C-alpha cells in the first residue's frame, strides 16, 4: 500500500517532530534536524515484499542515525539512496562523501551515520535486509559511506530503474512485489560486486539483472506499437534467441509479457474515473494497440468483456462485476 506524507498544513513549529516521525516510520528511527526557517518535505513509500521503496523530497535539513538509536532499534538493513535532485554529505564509518545529483550511496542502518542536505533535494531510497545481497559483510562495508556513479557500469542500469520504480509506486501490484524485490536487490548486488571486483554471489544473478534491465526497457516503451523482440534484443546487444531464452526461463514469452502489461495499463485507465470521458480506442492506442478491433478482441479474451463493457461495469456495479470479469479472464488465460 502506498504511504504518503507531506508537511503542507503542518504548523511550522510542529514540523520537526512531524518529519522525525515520518522518516522514522518510513526508514529506521532517525533524528531530523531542521533549519530555523521554513522546512518542506514530501515522502511516498511502498513495500515490495521484504524491501521498501521511498521517494522523498525536502528542503535543507540534516538526518542523523545516532548510536543511541542504533542500539534501541537495530534493523540489520542497508539503504541505497539515489540523488535525483540536489546532493548531500554523508558520513559513516569515519568516511565522508559528497554525493551529487545522479550519484548513489550505500549506508548501513546498524552503524551511526548522518546526512546533511544543504539545498532542496530529492532521493529515491531502497531499504532492504543486508542478507539479501549475498555478499561478504566485511566487503560490503568497504562501499558504505562512498559515492557511487550512476552514469557508468552497472550503476547506469540501477539509477534509471530506480527512477522508473519511483514513478510507478502506486502501480506495482502486491502479488508481483516479492519477485520484483528479489530482482531489484540482485541488480544492486551485481553493481556492488562489480565495484568490489567480486564474482556475483548467485551465479544466476547476472541473468536476472539482465532480465530486469530488459523488462524496465519494455515497460518504458509499452506505448510503442513497434516494440518487438528484434528491437528489444538490439537495444541490449543480445541475440533474439537469447532474449526468448530469458523469458522462457520465466515461463512466459516476450509477446505475452508485452501484451499482459499493456492490458493491465488499459484496465487501470478504464477504471480511472478521471478518464471516464476518454475514448476507449484512445486508451488502447496509448498502450500500443492502435487497431481498435484488435484491442477489443485481445481485451475480451483476457477479461471476458469488451473494453467498453468493462468500463460500463465499473460505472454501474463496481467491484462485484469487475471481480467476476477478472476471475473469468484468469480462467480463460
UniProtKB/TrEMBL annotation:
Stretches assigned to coiled coil: none
Domain spans labelled HTH araC/xylS-type: 212-313
Entry-linked Pfam families: AraC_binding_2 (PF14525), HTH_18 (PF12833)
Keywords, comma-separated and alphabetical: DNA-binding, Transcription, Transcription regulation
GO molecular function terms noted in the UniProt entry: DNA-binding transcription factor activity; sequence-specific DNA binding
Protein known as: Helix-turn-helix domain-containing protein
Native species: Herbidospora galbida
Lineage summary: Bacteria, Bacillati, Actinomycetota, Actinomycetes, Streptosporangiales
Amino acid at each position: 500500500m502506498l504511504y504518503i506524507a507531506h508537511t503542507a498544513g503542518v504548523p511550522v513549529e510542529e514540523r520537526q517532530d512531524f518529519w522525525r516521525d515520518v522518516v522514522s516510520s518510513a526508514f529506521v528511527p532517525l533524528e531530523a534536524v531542521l533549519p530555523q526557517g521554513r522546512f518542506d518535505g514530501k515522502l511516498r513509500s511502498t513495500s515490495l515484499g521484504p524491501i521498501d521503496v521511498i521517494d522523498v523530497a525536502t528542503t535543507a535539513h540534516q538526518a542523523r542515525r545516532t548510536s543511541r538509536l542504533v542500539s534501541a532499534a537495530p534493523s540489520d538493513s542497508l539503504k541505497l539512496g539515489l540523488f535525483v535532485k540536489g546532493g548531500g554529505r554523508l558520513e559513516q564509518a569515519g568516511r565522508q562523501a559528497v554525493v551529487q545529483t545522479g550519484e548513489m550511496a550505500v549506508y548501513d542502518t546498524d552503524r551511526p551515520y548522518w546526512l546533511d542536505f544543504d539545498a532542496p533535494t530529492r532521493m529515491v531510497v531502497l531499504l532492504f535486509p543486508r542478507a539479501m545481497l549475498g555478499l561478504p559483510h566485511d566487503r560490503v562495508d568497504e562501499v558504505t559511506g562512498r559515492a557511487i556513479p550512476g552514469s557508468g557500469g552497472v550503476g547506469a542500469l540501477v539509477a534509471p530503474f530506480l527512477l522508473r520504480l519511483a514513478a510507478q509506486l502506486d502501480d506495482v501490484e502486491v502479488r508481483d512485489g516479492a519477485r520484483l524485490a528479489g530482482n531489484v536487490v540482485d541488480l544492486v548486488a551485481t553493481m556492488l560486486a562489480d565495484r568490489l571486483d567480486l564474482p556475483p554471489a548467485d551465479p544466476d544473478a547476472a541473468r536476472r539483472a539482465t532480465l530486469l534491465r530488459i523488462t524496465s526497457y519494455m515497460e518504458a516503451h509499452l506505448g510503442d506499437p513497434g516494440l518487438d523482440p528484434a528491437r528489444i534484443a538490439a537495444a541490449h546487444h543480445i541475440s533474439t534467441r537469447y532474449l526468448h531464452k530469458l523469458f522462457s526461463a520465466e515461463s512466459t514469452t516476450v509477446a505475452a509479457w508485452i501484451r499482459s502489461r499493456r492490458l493491465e495499463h488499459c484496465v487501470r485507465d478504464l477504471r480511472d474515473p478521471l478518464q471516464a470521458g476518454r475514448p476507449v480506442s484512445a486508451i488502447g492506442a496509448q498502450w500500443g494497440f492502435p487497431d481498435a478491433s484488435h484491442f477489443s478482441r485481445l481485451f475480451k479474451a483476457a477479461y471476458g468483456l469488451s473494453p467498453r463493457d468493462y468500463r460500463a461495469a465499473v460505472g454501474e456495479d463496481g467491484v462485484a462485476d469487475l471481480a467476476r470479469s477478472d476471475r473469468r479472464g484468469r480462467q480463460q488465460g
